[in-house]
Specification:
The chain has 631 residues and is α/β, with parallel strands linked by helices. Helix content is 46%, strand content 16%. The protein folds into 5 domains: 2-154, Alpha-Beta Plaits (2-Layer Sandwich), CATH 3.30.70; 180-190 and 221-239, no CATH class; 268-351, no CATH class; 418-487; 495-626, no CATH class.
Length: 631
């Protein structure tokens, strides 16, 4: 189990298992990133590999003929520098090996490290501090070193933006991107940029545009092309806040962000999550003290310490005798507004902050109140709020509740042109196409990028496109195939889902009940521990149905894909799956059901299980009442 999992992760992240040894000190794996094959981001790959290993190795497993659960005890040391690498040995027997001081240092760090921790040297901490938080551990005397070696502990990946999945350059949005770049520029001069809206219908490319903005800003930062407060290597704190269409619980987008900011996991115990929370919270306080010279830093540090338990409560973490536990419900809510604003201000003292609100049309009323509080009196803080939203039912754009003097900038995304649709489809196919095929795709999709993508994939998967040779290869759609084309985007999506293998389609339809984002562990429980689930999930990813956020979470490529997979099932089947979802959540999170009360009420309600729906709805209501959360 251990070696198989490790081999898979080494291959996935581009490393090389150089050596496995066993001696009186235990077993040792020597894993190399950068030799014999190198990448431009070897350090980042190594860090992501070790964090993925930690997640994988912490899961209990069984051994043949032994029903007891086992876990892996491990620790890691990471160094960086020049080494000798090559073949060593003779003509009859040789091996690829590495030699060097940094190799020995990595081994000695690993042996000194605390179990279940990743220890790194100062040069790695310096190179990766913009993307990962580190805990300073002091300096250690290491054999072979004259001076003590500064050591840091790698915690988690700091990047908070939701993972995006896009290939190829963006098409037809150059003017909109330029406008957003100009509107957000004040944050690089230490000023509040206000609220930047991206409006458009489903599938029009709102998320893609913001993804492109993120890439552009990051590249400009690396090249030192941005303003006076933009320090190369420091980056931007891009915080992703996801709304929720169905439940719309109080402050859900900001609670979603906080759970990821503090790297909390539903699979961990409350004690483990509290430990992570305190570690990252203390790192923030330490960084404020060390890196920020502004006069307001001390006041913000004091307020963070005062409201620490309130921030924790927003992430569903609690402890006895805390400030949060002593407050009345209305004061709890007021302190949540203050505490969250203080946290965002604190982060902005370290580097510019961009707060992205996805699907703003589903924002709950309490979150609107939060934004009104957040945007008040922050003119001298480098903060920007991005809001991607569909139009409201009456066609009006979404408008957030903000302080009266808040700057606003609006982008309305329109359809792609004929040329834009053809260029985008050609990216998907990997070859150009005839003008006739480009016109056909434009007319069928009306220039909606998501519809262009799905229709192009549908034609490709069914083998309806042929290569037309007239001096160069162009994709062409024969007239004989025109009648086989679905007439609506919903029909296209359903046709693509129907072409999945039966077992894969069942997995996709089951996952659709859990929402656009789902956890593999819950899905596995719903499918009664299907031994082939991993392969089926991979097959759906290859079919462009969803993509992995991390080792245990997946995201449907688009909300419309998830909706089609859900609605194409009979009502009775959906009732059954909601029942299975509720039972799976109860089993997987039996150690801590409190964060899932609202989900359980929803699933039991959709399953027509009235008694359980009322039970969990009451528990969720009591929880909301305690927080003065009215939505």
């Amino acid at each position: 189990h251990f070696l198989t999992t490790t081999h898979e992760l080494i291959y996935r992240y581009g490393g090389n298992l150089n050596q496995v040894s066993f001696d009186d000190k235990g077993s040792m794996l020597v894993i190399v990133f950068g030799a014999p094959v190198t990448y431009e981001n070897n350090l980042d790959r190594a860090a992501q590999f070790l964090l993925a290993c930690r997640d994988a190795w912490e899961r209990p497993f069984t051994i043949a003929n032994d029903p007891q659960l086992h876990t892996i005890r491990w620790r890691a040391g990471v160094t960086f520098g020049m080494i000798w690498s090559g073949l060593r040995g003779g003509a009859e027997r040789c091996e690829y090996g590495i030699l060097g001081d940094v190799v020995n240092l990595a081994a000695r760090l690993a042996l000194r490290a605390t179990w279940d921790e990743i220890w790194v040297t100062a040069d790695i901490q310096h190179a990766l501090e913009h993307a990962y938080p580190f805990l300073p551990l002091g300096s250690y005397a290491i054999k072979g070193k004259k001076e003590a070696v500064p050591v840091f502990r790698l915690l988690e990946q700091k990047e908070m933006r939701q993972t995006r999945f896009y290939d190829g350059p963006m098409v037809g949005r150059e003017n909109e991107l330029t406008g957003l770049s100009s509107a957000i520029a004040p944050i690089f001069s230490g000023k509040f940029a206000g609220v930047l809206y991206v409006h458009g219908e489903a599938g029009i490319g709102k998320s893609r545009l913001l993804h492109e903005l993120h890439l552009q800003l990051r590249q400009q930062l690396l090249q030192g092309q941005l303003g006076e407060t933009a320090v190369p290597g420091k980056g931007i704190s891009w915080f992703y806040c996801a709304t929720e269409e169905i439940l719309r619980q109080s402050l859900n987008p900001f609670k979603y962000f906080l759970r990821r900011y503090f790297h909390l996991s539903a699979e961990s115990t409350p004690a483990q999550n509290r430990a992570r929370f305190h570690t990252i919270f203390n790192i923030l306080l330490r960084r404020l003290q060390q890196e920020s010279t502004l006069h307001s830093t001390t006041e913000i540090q004091q307020e963070l310490r005062r409201t620490q338990s309130v921030i924790a409560a927003m992430a569903d973490l609690y402890w006895e005798d805390s400030l949060y536990e002593q407050l009345e419900p209305q004061l709890r809510f007021e302190n949540m507004l203050t505490a969250f604003k203080t946290l965002i201000k604190a982060e902005s003292l370290l580097q510019p902050v961009i707060l992205e609100i996805d699907d703003g049309q589903w924002l709950d009323a309490d979150s609107q109140t939060m934004l009104q509080r957040l945007t008040r009196n922050i003119a001298q803080y480098p903060i920007a709020i991005l809001c991607a939203a569909r139009y409201q039912d009456d066609g009006r754009p979404v408008q957030l509740q903000t302080a009266p003097d808040t700057p606003h900038f609006h982008v309305d995304l329109n359809y792609l042109s004929v040329d834009g649709s053809r260029t985008f489809a050609a990216q998907i196919l990997g070859k150009n196409m005839t003008p006739e095929l480009g016109h056909f795709l434009f007319e069928k999709s009306n220039g909606n990028p998501f519809f262009v993508e799905q229709l192009t994939l549908d034609l490709q998967e069914r083998g309806l496109l042929t290569l037309h040779n007239n001096g160069r290869q162009l994709f062409h759609l024969p007239k004989a195939h025109l009648e086989a084309i679905p007439s609506t985007i919903n029909a296209v999506l359903m046709a693509r889902l129907d072409r999945l293998a039966s077992g894969v389609k069942q997995v996709v339809q089951t996952a659709a009940v859990l929402g656009r984002e789902f956890e593999v562990q819950v899905l596995l429980q719903m499918l009664q521990n299907d031994p082939d689930l991993s392969q089926k999930i991979h097959s759906a990813a290859q079919a462009q149905i969803w993509s992995a956020i991390n080792e245990i979470r997946y995201l449907f490529k688009h909300a419309l894909l998830r909706d089609s997979a859900y609605t194409m099932q009979l009502r009775a089947r959906r009732h059954e799956l909601h029942q299975l979802a509720a039972q799976a959540i109860e089993q997987v999170y039996a150690h801590d059901l409190e964060p899932h009360f609202a989900d359980l009420a929803y699933h039991y309600g959709q399953a027509n299980h009235v008694a359980n729906e009322r039970f969990y709805a009451r528990r969720a209501g009591e929880q909301a009442l305690a927080q003065f959360a009215n939505t």
